[in-house]
Write a structure and sequence with these properties.
This protein is an alpha/beta fold and about 230 residues long. Helix content is about 40%, strand content about 15%. Bound molecules: NADP nicotinamide-adenine-dinucleotide phosphate (NAP).
Length: about 230
């Protein structure tokens, strides 16, 4: 049995890809990990397998585009007196890959904002007040490393993630006097459904490159953008 370190992490899109890898890595470090997924049976399967390994995890149904779903998670946690210390806004979609602006659709823009930008907005709004009350919180918003490149390609994805990076910096500014660190990070190019089989890194390697942002002290950076531990401009 892994010893619980007293902190709770909530990961969105924990059922597969980088979300699954970071959830497992956090649980191995002793965090109690709430596994958020759109399909309950997927996260319950992980809960069962990982609990059998002695890890502290709990699967919940969580759709980041649905306020009701987010409130249900918050309520269930409150009823059990559980506060979220670490929030990993990992859930994301990559629509209309490669399409330039002229061929992009309004629907893809809206859907990408709903998940990639507003998902993180909603989760942060719901859980930041508790972090503030505890004077402790770490939020990581997952973004791609290609963000600065303005080539007209991946339009819906890049614009929604760019907005997320701006939101990250704004939230960090508002909470800068508390021990709350909110950063954007790129997990590098990983072999997941989104990254594809030709990507350079495994999901586990991508997840591991983010872990240091969780285990930071009150003097660590906030409102920044990192790739593999290196701060990058955006
Ligand atoms: N892979 C890379 O190379 C790479 C590089 C840079 C950044 N990232 C970022 O890292 C994050 C994870 O990427 P990935 O490669 O692991 O992607 P992935 O394999 O496609 O997995 C995406 C995850 O997001 C979940 N998701 C999508 N919409 C959701 C919603 N409305 N509510 C809750 N969950 C939702 C999916 O759940 P379902 O199974 O229900 O669809 C899935 O668990 C993304 O934010 C991505 O932008 C990835």
């Amino acid at each position: 049995m892994v010893e619980h370190n007293g902190k709770t992490a909530l990961v969105t899109g924990a059922n597969r890809g980088i979300g699954k890898a970071i959830s497992y890595a956090l649980a191995k470090q002793g965090f109690f990990v709430i596994l958020g997924g759109r399909t309950l049976k997927d996260v319950k399967k992980l809960e069962k397998d990982w609990t059998n390994e002695g890890l502290h995890v709990h699967g919940v149904i969580l759709d980041v585009t649905n306020n009701g779903s987010i409130s249900m998670v918050k309520m269930a946690l409150m009823q059990n007196d559980i506060k979220v210390d670490i929030l990993i806004n990992n859930a994301g979609i990559f629509l209309e890959k490669k399409l330039p602006f002229s061929q992009s659709s309004e629907q893809a823009m809206i859907d990408s904002f709903q998940t990639n930008t507003m998902g993180a907005y909603r989760l942060s709004k719901e859980f930041l007040p508790d972090m503030l009350a505890n004077n402790y919180g770490r939020i990581i918003n997952l973004v791609p490393g290609i963000i600065k490149e303005t080539a007209s390609i991946h339009v819906a994805y890049k614009v929604s993630k760019m907005a997320l990076m701006t939101l990250t910096a704004m939230m960090a500014d508002e909470y800068k006097d508390a021990n709350i660190k909110i950063n954007s990070a790129c997990p590098m190019w990983c072999r997941t459904d989104m990254g594809g089989p030709r990507a350079t890194y495994s999901a586990e390697e991508g997840a591991n490159s983010l872990l240091w942002l969780i285990n930071t002290d009150e003097h660590s950076p906030t409102g920044k953008f990192f790739i593999n531990g290196q701060e990058k401009p955006f």
